[in-house]
């Protein structure tokens, strides 16, 4: 089921929680709504679910305008952070619930329900827990029951609001990978809300980055991480180094440091900031015009890559650089050494453009 979100705005009193949101979701896509607290993610999800009414705009499922139809008729499945499983029901009964309460005409037989529930419990690896009560499950297991329960009614769209938010880091990681697999097996259009950038970048087909009720950027995880279109997205999606300077003749200059900024040719004598991800910086032994001198303050060797913290000689600002183990070995770097740091890929923004 494809989804179109058209010009959705929502206010609570004088406060505008969503401001003219527009985007399309393809059938079978897994979309992450990512943003800081209060950016409007949950409000948007609740509007898609029909739990909240927008002040303006429309939601289409396929070609059908469902803006004014009830949640029940939208055939959406939900999983929330603190999913209220029925405590007096076993795992089996919880998953079966949505099928049992169907109108008689569409209700499956007892055997069909049993078959379906066991198939879903198998999928979430909880077959042997069918007779347990929720109070005897771990948080991760409860969320798996919640997912099986949401899928039981064969929703056209699956909506998840911080589904793993209350779980510890290791369980979160396992569950999100597993959600991805489940999503791929079922090919169900899914939207999940998260404020955790790692989670969004890890599992989503596309990430919708939200800020103050607006969409900052939509793209694949690679696009939004590698090519942010605003300082906000740079900061929100990972570590970033700032090279502050002045624009002049299509170049960003600061003291002896000069880099090309051809998109700003004609913008003269204006303060600007170059944004660079830690892995887009190289370390050199020799000075060049587009490098700055820095002292290695700390080397963190644990993990797949080597993280370095450096302090610039000219302004005492900290820089974070990420090297592969091979690059690190070749350079033979040591703490306290002086090196030259050169941005390989830098994107320039003019400060008035952002607030962070
Ligand atoms: P979080 O990650 O903290 O859940 P969010 O990005 O999901 O944040 P929303 O829950 O959509 O954000 O809230 C967006 C803004 O709208 C917030 O400032 C919130 O206080 C406000 N808001 C949400 N629901 C209501 C409501 N029922 N009445 C008044 N204000 C609301």
Describe the structure.
It is built from ten helices and 20 strands. With 356 residues, the protein is of the alpha+beta class. The chain folds into two domains: 3-235, Rossmann fold (3-Layer(aba) Sandwich), CATH 3.40.50.300; 239-280 and 291-353, no CATH class. The strands form four sheets. It has a six-stranded mixed β-sheet, sandwiched between helices. It has a five-stranded antiparallel β-sheet with strand order 13-12-11-14-20, with no helix packed on it. Strand 7 (157-161), helix 6 (169-186) and strand 8 (189-194) form a beta-alpha-beta unit. The longest helix has 18 residues, at 169-186. Adenosine-5'-triphosphate is lined by residues 12, 15, 17, 35, 37-43, 195. Residues 12, 15, 17, 35, 37-43, 195 line the site of adenosine-5'-triphosphate.
């Amino acid at each position: 089921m494809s989804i179109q979100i058209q010009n959705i705005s929502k206010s609570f009193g004088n406060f505008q929680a969503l401001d003219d949101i527009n985007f399309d979701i393809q059938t079978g896509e897994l979309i992450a709504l990512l943003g800081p607290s209060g950016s409007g993610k949950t409000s948007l999800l609740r509007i898609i679910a029909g739990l909240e009414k927008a002040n303006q705009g429309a939601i289409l499922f396929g070609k059908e305008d469902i803006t004014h139809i009830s949640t029940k008729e939208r055939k959406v499945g939900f999983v929330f952070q603190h999913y209220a499983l029925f405590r007096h029901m076993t795992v089996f009964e919880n998953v079966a619930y949505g099928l049992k309460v169907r109108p008689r005409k569409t209700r499956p037989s007892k055997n069909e329900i049993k078959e379906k529930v066991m198939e879903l419990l198998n999928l979430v690896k909880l077959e042997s827990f069918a007779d347990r009560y929720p109070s005897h499950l771990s948080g991760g297991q409860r969320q798996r029951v919640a997912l099986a329960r949401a899928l039981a009614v064969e929703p056209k769209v699956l909506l998840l609001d911080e589904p793993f938010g209350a779980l510890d880091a290791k369980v979160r990681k396992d569950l999100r990978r597993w959600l991805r697999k489940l999503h791929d097996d079922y090919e169900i259009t899914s939207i999940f809300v998260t404020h955790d950038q790692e989670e969004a970048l890890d599992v989503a087909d596309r990430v919708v980055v939200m800020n103050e009720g607006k969409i900052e950027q939509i793209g694949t995880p690679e696009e939004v991480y590698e090519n942010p279109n605003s300082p906000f997205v740079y900061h929100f999606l990972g570590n970033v180094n700032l090279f502050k300077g002045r624009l002049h003749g299509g170049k960003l200059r600061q003291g002896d440091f000069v880099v090309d900024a051809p998109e700003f040719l004609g913008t003269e004598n204006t303060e600007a900031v170059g944004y660079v991800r830690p892995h887009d910086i190289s370390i050199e032994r020799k000075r060049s015009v587009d490098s700055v001198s820095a002292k290695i303050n700390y080397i963190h060797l644990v993990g797949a890559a080597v993280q370095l913290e450096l302090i610039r000689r000219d302004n005492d600002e900290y820089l974070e650089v990420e090297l592969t183990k091979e690059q690190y070995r070749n350079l033979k770097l040591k703490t306290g050494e002086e090196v030259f740091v050169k941005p390989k890929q830098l994107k320039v923004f003019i400060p008035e453009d952002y607030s962070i």
